[in-house]
Amino acid sequence: MELYLPILVLAVLAGGFAVFSVAIAPFTGPKRWNRAKLDAYECGIDPTPQPVGGGRFPLKYMITAMLFIVFDIEIIFLYPWAVAFDQLGVFGLVEMVLFIATVLVAYAYVWRRKGLDWD
Amino acid sequence: MSTLSPALLAAAPAGPSLADFGKDPLWITIIKAVFIFVFLLLGVLFGVWFERKLISRMQDRYGPNRAGRFGLLQSVADGLKMGLKEDITPRTVDKVLYRLAPIILVVPAFLAFSIVPFGPMVWMFGQHTPLQLTDMPVAVLFVLAMASVGVYGIVLAGWSSRSPYAILGGLRSSAQVVSYEIAMGLSFVGVFLFAGTLSTSEIVAAQAEGGTVELGGFTLNLPSWYVVLLIPSFLIYAITMLGETNRVPFDLPEGEGELVGGFMTEYSSSLKFALIMMAEYVNVFTVSALSITLFFGGWRAPWPISLWDGANVGWWPMLWFFIKLVLVFSAFVWIRASLPRIRYDQLMAFGWKVLIPLNLGWILMVATVRALQVPENNRAVVFTLAAVVLVGILAIWFRFDTVLQRRREEKAAQIEAEFARLQAEPEAGGFPVPPLDLPHYHGAGRKEVPSGSN
Lengths: 119, 454
Hints:
Chain A: Keywords: Cell membrane, Membrane, NAD, Quinone, Translocase, Transmembrane, Transmembrane helix, Transport. By secondary structure, chain A is mainly alpha-helical.
């Protein structure tokens, strides 16, 4: 726990600074009301109405996020393996070759189904 | 401030290890935390000035030279200006998340810097302590985790702004950052295979002296910095460094020609925007510091200086660290001055289709070499496995190449056929023109009128 305490100290410093900056921002500058200024910026045209609670967004981004999770989990498996590699010996190497080959199958599938393409 | 212990000089240890952490009294911790905080604040001010000045010189102009000597106070002036600007909160935004997003962006950026080793054990006000805020068994993973938390800030900033540019910018930016984070995480594995730890101080210690390798009866000394030993890992990391921090040539989130300001469009030039900009610069410093720690020997002196006995003890290493940091940051600026922005689909394709398979293949190679270095391993098994993997990779590559070749030929044939068809068509006059009987579009308010009748 002592290893994580310094991070907490830094978090208090950085968090305090950030909250302070956001909190005083409305008071340090001038205030000149203008209706157009409070619209969302769309290069001068009338802003597109946005649905409450957020609109839709391209499915592509969700697929990217899911693929990210798949490969992030692979990384999580790779790190302890890399650290304990010398102790694991040949067994570790064989296991990792099998694991990466398994992930490659999924990777090839996604690639083939154009999950990695961006059009 | 410091008294160098003679015993320390004599022993010249490889550097602090995990066991040296977690023993500081609270006030030393606070001093270190304040130091890192102030260092990053001033670093951002200096970094902005330095980048502008250097890029100006590369583009044959002066850059900022009005505020202070050499324009050194330019960033301070800009910061003050941002504080004195009107803070506009657009009417449509989600007020809570809109204010929270810059905080979520900037705090993890600062925290990621807490595991960066600045130097070895020093005497600070009578306390023997490492020049590093903290270290843990999962230090490098912690940096990746903080980078991931920062993505929340980007997404929420875009989402809460309720503006098409902001939401597209936020989504794009987060998709880019997570894609390059995978390649970044994979590029570290080679380092961990050699260092055998995720703790940053121990990775620096592992680069103190290169090991030896027996190769056909010869004893070869391996170089001590991982950048030499694991150059493909470093090159991949260097690319992901740019992608992760949204810098040129991967600065698509701010592609002003298409997205105005990306996820920060709705943040007026007030202190909130200053926080976002600060988070970006701090992230650049963090990835630079990480590249130094993992690949450039951390705070250890480079070769000619390292011949001097006192180079790696006391407070000197901090100087080497800062010099390396400025050099890596200059490389960022150099790249910014040299390269144009790349297209988004190319960026994603490069991250997913090139960097990840390359990385996995390289990890397997490094692991095989490591397995051969451990003497009690059965060499025959390792060689067989290596042969199987090599044949597998070659088979995949061969198959891949044939498929690519076939697709290219198909595409060429298709274009050829279409061209021939259009040339034969008398109506098109031999050129591809849109058909003349397309309906005209007069806006949603009016009824569709078939062409020819108006």
